[in-house]
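In response to the reviewer comment on reproducibility (Comment 2.3), we provide here a single inverse folding case reported in full, input and output, so that an independent group could reproduce the run without further information from us. The structure tokens appear first.
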């Protein structure tokens, strides 16, 4: 992604990033809630899939020329608190 992103595109990406963060949190919570090891494994795998989506979105935004404006305006999304260990 090397083109300039419009403000609308950045808002859409911001929304998608928030959705991915929500899914990561939900599936990690589900992992803690269940005692079934097979279900724990599945929940961790799904959380990892959403973490990968999150990382890809952040990387793509940062590689665009509009990325600086996005990360400066939304520093919470670039924080490592959402980089869980699986």
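Designed residues, in position order:
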């Amino acid at each position: 992604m090397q083109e300039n992103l419009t403000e609308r595109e950045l808002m859409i990406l911001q929304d998608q990033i928030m959705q991915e963060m929500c899914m990561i949190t939900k599936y990690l919570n589900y992992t803690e809630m269940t005692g079934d090891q097979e279900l724990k494994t599945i929940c961790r795998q799904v959380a990892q899939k959403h973490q990968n989506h999150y990382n890809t979105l952040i990387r793509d935004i940062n590689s665009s020329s509009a990325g600086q404006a996005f990360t400066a305006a939304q520093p919470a999304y670039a924080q490592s608190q959402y980089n869980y260990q699986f």
